[in-house]
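Design request, tokens follow.
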């Protein structure tokens, strides 16, 4: 089943850049106005999906990237470029870019702090919501699952320099990313902590965690916790700067 899911995900991803080719020439052909060479202008391709301020797209699959820790954003761009994450449009855009350029993009969006989009989570049962809250705040020692808050911070707003916040993300995005770890279409530098955690989550657990997180009120004024304020329960390769 996992093999089939990987094949479907990769095939859809390969088709999207082809569709984009039918859109981009319309804008490229309009040369009546000079193009300013600024970082804001150069990240317009990012803004097409993630919003000008990195506030997130209109659907649940383009997350809010504004305000996330710069090192987290930088490592995700590296992961797309170097093949650890699979999503063809992102891979296509970042493949020719240098480390320095990717870091500039990451810093640009890390310094934006837009409002969070509405998440519109599905209605889950009280039992499912209680399970989601348990996994987020306590984990499940019987299954070897650490609490989400033990890495992402007590307030779940992330931790500098490279751990992202979880509140304010849509249900669809959270569940899809956990699924991507389970199907090997998303990975991080080894040791890959999230891959180990995701492998222990059942479909019901994924829905519960995603639903509880997506139902929490997100505060745009909140910031990631300071570096060193959280001691993660496992060593993660993604935290190497």
């Amino acid at each position: 089943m996992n093999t089939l899911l990987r094949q479907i995900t990769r095939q859809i991803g390969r088709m999207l850049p082809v569709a984009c080719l039918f859109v981009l020439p319309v804008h490229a052909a309009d040369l009546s106005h000079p193009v300013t060479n600024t970082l804001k202008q150069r990240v317009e391709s990012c803004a097409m999906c993630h919003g000008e301020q990195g506030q997130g797209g209109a659907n649940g699959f383009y997350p809010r990237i504004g305000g996330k820790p710069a090192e987290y954003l930088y490592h995700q761009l590296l992961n797309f470029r170097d093949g650890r994450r699979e999503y063809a449009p992102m891979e296509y855009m970042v493949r020719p870019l240098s480390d320095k350029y990717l870091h500039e993009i990451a810093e640009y969006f890390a310094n934006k702090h837009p409002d969070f989009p509405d998440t519109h989570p599905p209605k889950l049962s009280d039992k499912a919501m209680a399970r989601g809250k348990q996994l987020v705040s306590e984990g499940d020692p019987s299954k070897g699952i650490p609490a989400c808050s033990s890495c992402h911070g007590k307030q779940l707003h992330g931790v500098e320099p490279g751990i992202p916040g979880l509140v304010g993300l849509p249900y669809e995005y959270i569940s899809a990313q956990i699924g991507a770890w389970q199907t090997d279409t998303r990975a991080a530098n080894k040791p890959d902590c999230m891959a180990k955690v995701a492998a222990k989550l059942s479909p019901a657990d994924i829905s519960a965690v995603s639903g509880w997180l997506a139902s929490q009120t997100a505060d745009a004024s909140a910031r990631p916790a300071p570096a060193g304020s959280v001691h993660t329960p496992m060593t993660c390769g993604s935290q190497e700067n």
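Comment from the thread starter after seeing the answer: thanks! The CA atoms of residues 71 and 161 lie 6 Å apart.
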